[in-house]
């Protein structure tokens, strides 16, 4: 069961809303699918993205995956710990493995995202 | 991202065992194969420090026999099969007339009139067609791929794990040699060969015994740190050892000499398919060469990423990956011969970024004896 205080994308990112801001990472399902993460490329503070744009990439031994921003936002903080220790994404995807914090640019966009229950159903369907 | 049902793919006799072990299965060369069980890095490290067990039954095997068997091999393979003794194996290749690669193969000599050729899974049909259509002297050629299971037990602990399970004295099998005997009372060919850069054995035996042999080795190896290992680790291991992958690092568009496979091209043996073209290329020099490189920064070069020399696109990465053993990002690429010297810098386009790379000596990893 995914944490129910988060919102989810079909591309397996999560978003935690707090006031005007949001924190973004990838899900437990995503880190498992990727395997051991060895490199993560994240944007600079101040960069603005439209909803659905690529904000970085995450690489495991076997593959590279793009990261898609769940909602439009301006990057206000980047998890610098992930540079030297990308394995934190595997170990704690909803905690120490967070990737960026943003200032929300359009609060109405969250309607397109999935709840934890919807996301769990989505990932169980995808497996079949 | 999930793996769906893959109805058109072939499965090895151990498919259900892999599923039960929780392996992630992916399509590879027409087969649905385990890519990882506990994780590529973990399996990779197990092979470098203890041992890993791979199901590589998707590989093809041809039985080649009769008084004309050696003549057939000599005419289609680039290495000199006449140098083989009974019980010896040889890395070789089949070339097209213009010197490019039909396949890279292993040739085992049972005796002067009986050989086994091991070929890549995705090339079984093509190779069989090629060999039989060039079989003028009418040697016996039979595709026995479906009858055989092939397991690779690789790593420094391989011999210690396998010895109690077999009647063969493994210490007597030298590198690229083999013996026939029993493993768990099942008739098997055991060769000291592999595709990982570690010591280890490859076991060929009748497919009907797949499960007990696989399970028995895994169980016996458990105290030694043996792990089941998938094609993901097999790929990162072979790349560190600069063992080439057909379809990536060489194929029907690259010659053996460009790929750096000159040591298995014996231009001094009697005529074979591809000899004239390879001889000419050797005399004139190759225009491009497969080089090993490492990335200067943290970017990872992946298969098919474009490569730039002097600002111009010069080719692509044929194999690229993080090196788990060396903690560097490594790869192979074809570069113009005049820019292929050790130490030469070039660029790999990693997404939108020109990322610095440097040609290094290969193999990237060599085990200490």
Give an overview of the whole structure:
- The complex is a heterodimer of chains A (about 130) and B (about 375).
- Chain A starts with 6 loop residues before the first strand and ends with a helix.
- Chain A has one domain (about 5-125): Beta Barrel (OB fold (Dihydrolipoamide Acetyltransferase, E2P)), CATH 2.40.50.
- Chain A has helices at about 30-35, 90, 115-125; strands spanning about 5-10, 15-20, 20-25, 35-40, 50, 55-60, 65-70, 75-80, 100-105.
- With about 130 residues, chain A is of the alpha+beta class.
- Chain A is globular, with a radius of gyration of 13 Å.
- Chain A is built from 3 helices and 9 strands, in the order E-E-E-H-E-E-E-E-E-H-E-H.
- The longest helix of chain A has 12 residues, at about 115-125.
- By secondary structure, chain B is α+β, with helices and mostly antiparallel strands.
- Helix content of chain B is about 20%, strand content about 35%.
- Chain B has 8 helices and 19 strands.
- Chain B has helices at about 15-20, 40-50, 70-75, 125-135, 160, 210-220, 230-240, 275-285, and strands at about 25-30, 30-35, 50-55, 60-65, 90-95, 100-110, 115-120, 140-145, 150-155, 180-185, 185-190, 200-205, 225-230, 290-295, 305-310, 310-325, 330-335, 345-350, 355-360.
- A 6-stranded mixed β-sheet of chain B has the order 10-11-12-9-3-13, sandwiched between helices.
- In chain B, strand 10 and strand 11 form a beta hairpin.
- The longest helix of chain B has 12 residues, at about 210-220.
- The N and C termini of chain B lie far apart (about 40 Å).
- The mean pLDDT of chain B is about 95.
- At the A-B interface, strand 6 and helix 3 of A face helix 2 of B.
Can you give me a brief rundown of this structure?
The complex is a heterodimer of chains A (128) and B (369). Chain A has 128 residues and is an alpha+beta fold.
